[in-house]
Amino acid sequence: MATQPQRNEDLVQVFDSEQESEAMVVRSLLESEGIDAIVSSLDAPQDVLPGVGGVVVRVAAEDAEKARQIIQDYRVSGDESADEGEANSESADITKEG
Description:
Blueprint: E1 11-17, H1 20-32, E2 37-41, E3 55-60, H2 64-97
Antiparallel strand pairs: 1-3, 2-3
């Protein structure tokens, strides 16, 4: 695995979430495709901005477009898998009732 960029100026945000676990999945997805990524916290002072925060995934600027495409492809395939799972579940319910 290549070394991660050291300066935040060299990094581009490609994903954000309120859930750290979701950002970690995206980071793993990108790294499995050969793109180094880091997860950074967006914590805001809760006494000033309650409920604001989250995490972002950043990659090197030259990898940003490819990373966004990988994330988009994953979202599309994930939606299709969820739809197939629901269809299989519904057909199983119909079979049980019939």
